[in-house]
Amino acid sequence: MKKVEFSPSLMTMDLDKFKEQIEFLNNHVGSYHIDIMDGHYVPNITLSPWFIDEVRKISQLPMSAHLMVMDQSFWVNQLVDMKCEWICMHAELLDGMAFRLIDQIHDAGLKAGIVLNPETPIETIFPYIELVDKITIMTIDPGFAGQRFIESTLDKIIDLRKLREVKGYKYVIEMDGSSNRKSFKQIDAAGPDVYIIGRSGLFGLDNSIEKSWEIMKKDYNDMTGKTIE
C-alpha cells in the first residue's frame, strides 16, 4: 500500500503553541506547507519567508512554500537565497517566466512545484511539465481556509497519475484545500501523494495537538479503511 504523506499548512496552526505543535509534528509528518500571500494575488496577507527560518530553528523537515503572490520572480529569489526545499508557483502567473524560474530553482539545488487553481486545466503546464518536481491541485479557491471542497478538481489528480505512469514523469502530486473527514474518502480514491491539512483536518480538532493528530488519524482511517502509522 502506498504511504500517504501529510503536510500541515502552518498558516492554520495555533501560533500561541508554535513550538509545542512543531516539535510534536516533527515526528509525524513529512514536510511543512508555508503559504506566502501578498494581499494582491489573493486578498489575504499571511506568512512570509522569515517564518521558514523560525520553523527551521526547531525542525529539520523540508519546507514547501506556496507562492500566492503577483511578483513570482521577487519571491523566488528570496526563497532560493533561503534554500527553501520546495518552491511552488502558480501556473496562472508564469507566462513568459516558467522555464527561467524553474531553471533558477533547480540550479540552486532546490525543487520546483507548480500550483493549479480549480479552474485551471493541467494542459496549461504541458510545455514544461517534464521539468516539474511537484504539482499541487487546489481543491478550493486559493487564499482562504475553510472553503467548500470542490470535488471535481480531483479528476486532475487522477489524470496526472495516469500521465505520470505513461510518460515516466517524476513529479509528486499534492492536493491543497479542505482535507478533512468529509473529503478523505474522495481524496483517497483520487490518490494524491501528499495531503495538505489545515484547521478543518487537524489544527481545529482539539486544543491539544496530540489529540488533534489522533482524531485526524481516526477520521482518515474510518473514511478510507486504511491506517496511518
Explain what you see.
Helices cover 34% and strands 18% of the residues. With 229 residues, the chain is an alpha/beta fold. Strands 1-8-7-6-5-4-3-2 form an eight-stranded parallel β-sheet. Helix 6 (184-190) packs across helix 8 (209-224). The model has no long low-confidence stretch (mean pLDDT 93).
Which short descriptors sum up this protein?
229 residues, 8 helices, globular
Give a short synopsis of this structure.
By secondary structure, the protein is of the alpha/beta class.
Note the topology.
Layout: E1 5-8, H1 18-25, E2 32-37, H2 49-56, E3 63-68, H3 72-81, E4 86-90, H4 98-107, E5 111-116, E6 134-138, H5 154-167, E7 172-176, H6 184-190, E8 194-197, H7 199-203, H8 209-224
Parallel strand pairs: 1-8, 2-3, 3-4, 4-5, 5-6, 6-7, 7-8
Helix pairs in contact: 6-8
Low-pLDDT runs of 5+ residues are none
Total number of β-strand segments?
Answer: 8
- Integer average pLDDT: 93
What is the C-alpha radius of gyration, as a whole number of Å?
17 Å
* Class of secondary structure makeup: alpha/beta
From the N-terminal CA to the C-terminal CA, the straight-line distance is 13 Å
Order of the strands making up the biggest sheet: 1-8-7-6-5-4-3-2
Count every helix, treating DSSP H or I runs of 4 or more residues as helices. Answer: 8
Main sheet overview: 8 strands, parallel
What proportion of the residues is helical, as a percent range? Answer: 25-40%
Order of helices and strands: EHEHEHEHEEHEHEHH
Strand content: 15-25%
Shape: globular
